[in-house]
Write a structure and sequence with these properties.
- This protein is mainly α and 480 residues long.
- It has one domain: Sodium/glucose cotransporter.
- The protein has 18 helices and no strands.
- Helix 4 packs across helix 12, helix 8 packs across helix 14 and helix 16 runs parallel beside helix 18.
- The model has no long low-confidence stretch (mean pLDDT 83).
């Protein structure tokens, strides 16, 4: 269990992020400040925030557990990310930044109609709400492992802290706290690796040698099922399509591009986010491989039945000295909140700008007040989703699966929206609805075997089905 010093470290971290939220709150004078930081945020900080949005507590807790059991195969996903970011930088960002947008889905209304905008925004909100539940559940699981608190209590605590500073400071608080949280995560990972190094006679080199002999340092597994993210086609192409949807159409990321000062700075932010993501993902996987070597030497110290997501919390509770354990718990909270705050901010932004501002217009001061209430409501819903999702699969698999359910049809809409010639709005809407239905039906348990489910290809399936229905109508419009 945690020492008193550890609780002080965690409390100090929570106090700092709340203070940052309050400082951002004092500088706000309009809804544009709240939603987009006045379109004047530094690209380097925005880039760190892009990484922090994608790197959640699911990644921090799930990454070491993934590598402990399967090695470095998850690193292949960074290739899919790289391809996706390159496409977004050269095609999506110029199109989105060429207009005075607040949400990504305003772009769709200008290319199709209001119905398509509302459908894409609603899909995004469903996607983020489910993912937000995973984001709250991850750190709450770790805290319940490390403290005497039960899981439900820790879920409520994590959701409340993240909601508090996001309600106060909007996107400015989110971006600056994200940058701080990336630093805390790196420090926490470094502390774990240092402890493993000092806890083995041969240091980290011995741990990696043991892991290598057990096949934990492989980067590619040609025998992995194609619907798994551990297969290279699934990681590069299946996940790459999901990453393209996340980087190019997801309001959490697009909101950051729109917060930069120019197209050039938005592009730099996107590349920075990918590069930092590569480094931190590699760190979590290397830590998992090192933990494997460590516990092969310290046999009996680790319960053979322990869940993958609980390996890092177990190491923290039993191996790290007071103070460092608190730093790691702060890192888990940082990873959680850096993703959760973005989810809450983007949910409030899309709900206000895409729906309420159209249905019940108000002045700017009213919009700002309503946005803060919406952020609070989003925090409550995310906490409720976490309570519902608790215990339903490993964190990494659960997070990726939820994202894939809705991402494909949204991506297909954006792909066609970027074209000069497009299908009629009603066709695009029907195609996207059918694409979503197909993915959900294919993903639920049914008479088909596990290998036949889309898995990591869920986003690709939704994209292909939606495009297959809509593209023939594009060709008709071009020939007419």
């Amino acid at each position: 269990m945690l020492h008193r010093v550890d609780f002080l470290v965690v409390a100090a971290y929570a106090a700092v992020v709340i203070i940052l939220g309050w400082m951002a709150h004092r500088r706000q004078s309009s809804s544009t400040d709240y939603f987009l930081g006045g379109r004047n945020l530094p690209w380097l900080v925005v880039g760190a925030s892009i990484l922090a949005t994608a790197f959640s507590a699911s990644s921090l807790l799930g990454g070491p557990g993934e590598a402990f059991h399967h090695g470095l195969l998850w690193l292949q996903l960074q290739v899919g990310d790289l391809i996706a970011v390159a496409i977004v930088v050269y095609f999506f960002i110029p199109a989105l930044r060429g207009r005075e947008l607040t949400t990504a889905y305003e772009f769709l209304e200008s290319r199709f109609d209001l119905r398509v905008r509302w459908f894409a925004s609603a899909l995004f909100q469903l996607q983020v709400l489910f993912r937000a539940g995973v984001l709250v559940y991850g750190p709450a699981l770790a805290l319940s492992t490390l403290t005497d608190l039960n899981l439900s209590s820790t879920i409520v605590i994590v959701g409340a802290v993240a909601a508090a500073y996001t309600v106060l400071g909007g996107i400015t608080a989110v971006v600056w706290t994200d940058a701080l949280q990336v630093g805390v995560v790196v420090a926490g990972l470094g502390a774990c690796l240092a402890q493993i190094h000092t806890g083995m006679d041969g240091g980290l080199a011995e741990a990696f040698s043991i892991a290598s002999e057990a096949g934990r340092t492989r980067l590619v597994d040609t025998a992995a099922p194609l619907n798994s993210a551990r297969s290279w086609p699934g990681a590069v192409f299946g996940y790459g399509i999901l990453a393209l949807a996340v980087f190019g159409t997801n309001q959490q990321t697009v909101q950051r591009y729109l917060s930069c000062r120019s197209v050039a700075e938005a592009r730099r932010a996107a590349w920075t986010g990918w590069f930092l993501g590569l480094l931190i993902t590699a760190l979590t996987l290397v830590l998992g491989v090192a933990l494997y070597g460590y516990y092969r030497v310290h046999t009996g110290a680790l319960d053979s039945e322990i869940a993958a997501d609980a390996i890092l919390p177990f190491f923290v509770a039993n191996e790290l000295p007071p103070g460092l354990a608190g730093l790691l718990v702060a890192a888990i909270l940082a990873a959680a909140m850096s993703s959760l705050d973005s989810a809450l901010s983007s949910l409030a932004t899309t709900c206000e700008v895409d729906f309420l501002s159209r249905l019940r217009p108000t002045d700017d001061a009213g919009t700002l007040r309503r946005a803060r209430w919406l952020t609070l409501i989003a925090g409550i819903l995310a906490t409720a989703a976490a309570l519902a999702l608790a215990g339903r699969g490993t964190l990494l698999a659960l997070a990726v699966r939820v994202m894939g359910w809705f991402a494909g049809p949204i991506l297909a809409i954006f792909i066609l929206a970027l074209r000069k010639h497009r299908p009629p709005a009603r066709v695009m809407l029907v195609a996207a609805v059918l694409g979503t239905v197909v993915v959900l039906l294919a993903s639920i348990p049914g008479p088909w075997p596990e290998w036949a489910r889309p898995g990591i290809w869920s986003a690709a399936l939704g994209t292909v089905v939606t495009l297959a229905i809509a593209v023939p109508f594009v060709r008709r419009s071009e020939s007419s």
